[in-house]
Known about the structure:
With 78 residues, the protein is an all-alpha fold. It has helices spanning 5-18, 23-30, 34-41, 49-59. It contains four helices and no strands.
Amino acid sequence: MIDTFPTFAANLRRLREERGLSQQKLADAAKMSIDHVGKIENRKREPGARTVAKLMKGLGISGGPLFDGIDGVEPESK
């Protein structure tokens, strides 16, 4: 079984940066601590379902983009 967490963490960082958000701004929008966001992006803490929902809200997205590539298939071009 492949480890999907590195892909999730990379997607989170990419999506945050594409939106021009610092970790602090995302943490504020998601009502989380900056420490928690940083640990997820740096693969030190895997998020649970509630945390993923908070991140989705903070990024203003549905869950799909956070999980792109986790199944081993590259996301479709937009």
